[in-house]
Amino acid sequence: MKTNFNKRKQTPTRKIFLPVILFFFFLFETGFSQSINETKKLLDRLDLSKSRLEKVKQSSGNPKTAAAELLKYYKQREFVKHPVDRSLKKSAAGNFADDDDLKIANDALKHYFIGQRAYPPYFCGEDIDWSTKPVPDNEWVWQLNRMYFWDSMGKAYWHTGDEKYAEEWGKQLIDWTRDNPRDDEHKYAWRSIEAGIRGHSWTNHYQRFIDSPFFTDEVLVALLNSLYDHAEYLMTVYRSGSNWGLMEAEGLAFIGFTFPEFKDAEKWREEAIRRLNREINIQIYPDGHQRELAIGYHLGCIRWFMRTYELAKMNGQENAFPESYLETIEKMCEVPMKIGLPDGTNVQFGDAWAGTPGQHKNRFLEWSEMFNRKDFLYLATDGKKGTPPDSTAYALPVSGIYSMRSNWDKNATCLVLKCGPDGGGHCQPDNGTFALYAGGRNLMPDAGSYIYSGDPENRAWFRQTKIHQTLTLNGENSAYKPKLVRWKPNDELDVLVVENKSYENLMHRRSVFFVDKKYFIVVDDAIGSATGNVDIHFQLAPGGDAIFNRIENSVHSDFKKGWNIFIRSNPQEGLKLEEEEGQVSFEYTKKQPRPAFRYRMKKRKNQDKIQFVTLVIPYESEVPEIKITRSLVKSGNMEIEVLENGKTRIINYKMNN
Ligand code: CA
Q1: Cα–chain-centroid distance for residue 113?
Q2: CB 527 within 8 A of CB 516
Q3: Quick check: helix, strand or coil at residue 15?
Q4: pLDDT interval class at 122 (50, 70, 90)
Q5: Which of 77, 101, 260, 445 has the fewest Cβ atoms within 10 angstroms?
Q6: Which residues surround ligand 1, an ion (CB under 5 A)?
Q7: How close is the Cα of 455 to the center of ligand 1, in Å?
Q8: Phi, psi of 509 (to 5 degrees)
């Protein structure tokens, strides 16, 4: 039996033995000659005349030896400085990755990758398919090709010291470079921002993994050749005027600074710095806000401008930037202080996300040291150190964003209004809108943006003018034609008057008066010959009911705990109070219903103006007993009589004050 068994096993084995050997020999041969060609290509791209590369040059006739020498050189090289400091690897053990990083890294070992972060990790195949798109949203595949999970793998490697992360990273890197040549078939991997993002982040990964025994000459050759392709590509693309241009430049700069051995490295560095110096003047308004007017991109731009500056500085080249470069960055850093909400969350104008309370503390701490700013330190430490910002009201007059707050406490009352120019694709036609926060609650948040790609219907919904706290004509979207008329912050009364030529024949003038640093009177004028339904819209926070009182034209939120908001418009003939559809999104792909309503007046022929005078009052306990008994608001002058808890009071403002 035994003999027969062996015979039976041997026969088929012998039949396939030779072809299998030949097949593997062929694979080995092609693999080998491929890697020789790759090494030759790389050697040709490097400046071997540099004395540091003497040994590589000497062995350049033998690519295998040259690659080994090159690897030895890079493992020993110390003169290039990078924000990821290799010498910290040892001290990083046990304190470098958090649970999220470890999970993302461990999933990535099994090829479960995160593309766009709002979606769960997805298996992309034993042999990774880098074009995987498990959801209709293109962001998923674009972001897959940014490989954020490699950053987690690098952190997990330093944290645990486990070589499996380095080994797998090297394999995935080689796989990506082989699978994704830059051609029409692989466009999903080669948008210019992904190329820029990789150009930067791959230099981080290089720093994290270079000291691993699994960082082989094959990994090195694949990495450097691909970075060369990245840099050459980034030299040909330059999207001026948007955050894209900065990511493109950053990738180029990081490749050029981290690998000065490339013949073209200096050219890349110079071009990247030229673009950043140019873009900081093009993209940043004199008031400090980046021109796209969405806070997340603004913060990103601070990072992109800053990182290349710091890299240049640590490599002794900060003189490539004029002094004004840093002054502008400092001005940019003031923006989240000036227009952020009291708990540190963002107002969601345009494609912006509220984020979490206190989210900017680390930034403010870093900036407080960099620019020696006590107000930044105050925000970084919840007021324990430093000094409060010098005002409770700030205007960014070119960007058209204005903030008024009662004080610098977390529970302060704060209104942030926008009436600015068109910021492009990340901006929404929302001029006149505002967010209102009081008593630790965002009582009237902006709806946000919900999604970027793959769901055009819902993306469009969140971009409508009429879902913002502003005025519309017949529910249509407004134009961007802003003008600042008056900005007069004062102890008792902050005054802001803005105009927007929202429609061809209709101008919206909004006057906001912050009374006693406690409540707001909002006066809306619709001026011009247009006819139709003129609405002012309001939206409340999700999670609570809204109580409508149609007799007195008021609405208030009904949170059982904490602060609420009361809104009441002055009575006038024909005024209608109507509910609207309300939604809000604080996280990508997630949305929830919320109360929304409008006050509507019909504007007729020969009627040159419609005016709404509205009280917007945050309160802590009882619903306020307050109404407007008389109002005269004209040409910037205001006299409003209110009946407040049974007492008559006149609030006055004159234009020439
Ligand atoms: Ca919005």
Answers
A1: 21
A2: no
A3: helix
A4: very high
A5: 77
A6: 428, 446
A7: 17
A8: -110, 125
Structure tokens at 56: 């590589």
Q: What is the sign of the dihedral through the CA atoms of 79, 196, 291 and 410?
A: negative
Could you give the count of Cα atoms lying within 13 Å of 622 in the half-sphere of its Cβ? 4
Supply the residues annotated as catalytic: 297
457-484 pLDDT per residue, tens: 999 999 999 999 999 999 999 999 999 9
- Closest Cα to residue 121, out of 98, 100, 96? 100
Q: In whole angstroms, how far apart are CA 414 and each of 247, 409, 454, 618, 623?
A: 34, 10, 35, 10, 19
If we measure between CA atoms, which residue out of 275, 231, 257, 324 comes closest to residue 45?
Answer: 231
Is 27 a residue whose pLDDT tops 80? no
Query: Rounded distance, CA 183 to CA 233, Å?
Result: 11
Q: What distances in angstroms separate CA 558 from CA 449, 578, 614, 623, one per listed residue?
A: 26, 18, 19, 10
Distance CA 269, CA 282 (A): 20
Looking at residue 86, the DSSP 8-state letter turns out to be: G
Angle between helices 163-179 and 217-236 (to 10 degrees): 50
Give CA torsion, residues 70, 75, 77, 78, to 10 deg: 170
Give residues with Cβ within 8 angstroms of 87, minimum separation 6.
Answer: none
Judged on CB neighbours under 10 Å (0-12, 13-18, 19+), 93 is exposed
What tokens were used for 400? 């058209």
User: How far is the C-alpha of 388 from the C-alpha of 376, rounded, in Å?
Assistant: 8
What's the length of the chain? 657
**Distance from Cα 306 to the centre of ligand 1, integer Å:** 28
Report the distance separating Cα 376 and Cα 385, nearest Å.
10
Q: Is 208 helix (H, G, I), strand (E, B) or coil?
A: helix
Q: How far is the CA of 568 from the centre of ligand 1 (A)?
A: 23
**How many CB atoms are closer than 10 A to CB 360?**
22
How many angstroms separate the alpha carbon of residue 463 from the centre of ligand 1?
6
- Measured between its terminal Cα atoms, the distance across the chain in Å is 111
Backbone angles phi, psi at 568, to 5 degrees: -145, 125
DSSP letter, residue 570: P
| Distance from the alpha carbon of residue 445 to the mean position of ligand 1, in angstroms | 9
Q: 216, 268 in Cβ contact below 8 A? A: no
Q: How far is the CA of 431 from the centre of ligand 1 (A)?
A: 10
Span from the CA of 449 to the centroid of ligand 1 (angstroms)? 6
What pLDDT is stored for residue 30 in this prediction? Answer: 59
Distances (CA, A) of 87 to 75, 83, 259, 470, 632: 12, 11, 18, 55, 70
Per-residue pLDDT of 560-583, as tens digits, reads: 999 999 999 999 999 999 999 999
Neighbours of 260 (CB within 10 A): 17
Neighbours of 277 (CB within 10 A): 16
> pTM for the whole thing?
0.91
Task: From 159, 163, 9, select the one nearest 89 (Cα to Cα).
Answer: 159
* Averaged pLDDT for residues 265-270: 98
Query: For residue 615, what is the enclosing H or E element?
Result: strand 609-619
Write the DSSP symbol of residue 345: P
Q: In 3-state terms, what secondary structure has residue 96?
A: coil
**Ligand 1 centroid to 291 CA: how many Å?**
16
- Contact call for residues 236 and 209 (beta carbons, < 8 A): no
Q: Tabulate helix, strand, coil % of the chain (nearest 5).
A: 40, 25, 35
Q: For residue 311, what are its two tokens?
A: 């890299």
CA distance linking residue 241 with residue 266, whole number of Å: 24
Task: Give CA–CA dist 239/248, Å, rounded.
Answer: 8
